[in-house]
Amino acid sequence: MNNEKLQVAVVGVGSFGRNHARVYKELASEGAVLAAIVDTDISRARAVAAEFGGQAFGSVSDMLACFPAVKAVSVAVPTVTHLPTARELMERGVDVLIEKPLAVSVAEADTLISLARQHGRVAQVGHLERFNPAVRATWALLTRPMFFEVHRLSVFSPRSLDVDVVLDLMVHDLDIVLKMANSPVRELRAVGLPVLTGKVDIASVRVEFESGCVANFTASRISTERVRKLRFFQPAQYVSLDYSRRDVFSLSVRPTEGGMPEIAPYKPEVSTEEPLRAELSSFLKAVRQRKTPEVTLEDGRAALALAIEIQQQMAEHHARARLDEVAVAMPCVKG
Ligand SMILES: NC(=O)c1ccc[n+]([C@@H]2O[C@H](COP(=O)([O-])OP(=O)(O)OC[C@H]3O[C@@H](n4cnc5c(N)ncnc54)[C@H](O)[C@@H]3O)[C@@H](O)[C@H]2O)c1
After folding, report:
1. Are residues 155 and 71 in the same domain?
2. Cα 288-293-299 angle, rounded to 5 deg
3. What stretches of 142-182 adopt beta strand conformation (E)?
4. Fewest beta carbons within 10 Å, which of 48, 78, 115, 176?
């Protein structure tokens, strides 16, 4: 691998961006030099810079004035500010890894795609689960998935409240299932309820693809337990993937000579690499080689477009079920 020095930075070092800084520091072994940490909350930028290295700045323009050699940046600001932040960086010739969800609207996602093309930038979207070693071990098992059952449940924490649970959590699974099903969406049904935050906190969605494959998604950010599971059935096989435990197993039905089919269990080997390290390493490789990243802005747009369609279906269900009339007055946590 070409490990020439490459100056990198992180913009937005809240609860998730801080992890990007930690991992870029570790990627010094691959030539990454964490030159700068940017956050409008300068005290936070200073604290993260003190911990992982780099110089702290309160804005992208201040950072680029001091470090014009920064060539690759993680954008981990709140989703509502992905577009202006990534725009400024790309216009100044910087390659970007934009956290998921790519943006808050398809129009914004399209603008990001055009900006990347116009300025010849390598631009990746942070769909981290693509780099989950359990997901990576699953691609080899895929034949023709016909039914997915996906659960992503989190205990409530007051973060990412600028978006609902579909854009916050479910979008990870939408990206993975879109890739695995590999077929256009034919129909979807969705119901979602705001419980604690004034935005939808729990959602149940059924998607049917043109291929006939059906996927059920449940996402909650108000659960009493943390669950991250994706299971699917395909001809003569059941596959179960646990994103958190990072393991996969399958059960296959096999004919035997005696006539009675047997059930054969299988557990593929799963690497122990941290997904974020794999993601940032892959991004830096794409930057060095000027190649299309493993997870493109178009992938981010596809997951976002489905998420937004789901939001529209949820709004229609909300109106049909006259949920406003039965809404219980609850104190809302402000985003
Ligand atoms: N890939 C994942 O698994 C994953 C997990 C969590 C969050 N995220 C994504 O990461 C992003 C950040 O989420 P978070 O939970 O860390 O949010 P957060 O609110 O904890 O942190 C955001 C940080 O950005 C700073 N900021 C805001 N506007 C800024 C600007 N214009 N310039 C510089 N700094 C700015 C804030 O001061 C804050 O420190 C979101 O898009 C979220 O969806 C991804």
Report:
1. no
2. 160
3. 147-155
4. 78
Distance between CA atoms of residues 105 and 103, nearest Å: 6
If you count them, how many residues does the chain have? 335
What's the CA gap between 335 and 333, in Å, rounded? 7
Q: Which residues line the pocket of ligand 1, CB cutoff 6 A?
A: 11-17, 38-41, 44, 76-79, 81, 85, 99-100, 126, 128, 159-160
334 domain residue, yes or no: no
Whole-angstrom distance, CA of residue 171 vs CA of residue 213 = 19
User: CATH number of the domain that 268 lies in?
Assistant: 3.30.360.10
**Most ligand 1 atoms within 8 A of CB, residue of 20, 22, 40 to mutate:** 40
- Cα 191 to Cα 272: distance, rounded to the nearest angstrom: 36
Domain-embedded: residue 331:
no
Query: Tens digits of per-residue pLDDT, 40-99?
Result: 999 999 999 999 999 999 999 999 999 999 999 999 999 999 999 999 999 999 999 999
Q: Which residues contact 287 (CB under 8 A, 6 or more apart)?
A: 6, 71, 72, 95, 122
Report helix angle 17-26 to 275-289, nearest 10: 70
Atom of ligand 1 at shortest range from CA of 276: 1
Q: Compute how many other C-beta atoms are within 10 angstroms of the C-beta atom of residue 120.
A: 10
Q: Say whether both 89 and 60 belong to one domain.
A: yes
Verify that 73 and 37 share a domain, yes or no.
Answer: yes
Query: How many distinct structural domains can be found in the chain?
Result: 2
Q: Nearest C-alpha to atom 2 of ligand 1 is from which residue?
A: 128
Q: Which of 40, 1, 13, 22 is nearest to 277 (CA)?
A: 22
Range of the domain at 231: 130-272+305-326
pLDDT digits (tens, 9 = 90+) for 227-284: 999 999 999 999 999 999 999 999 999 988 888 889 999 999 999 999 999 999 999 9
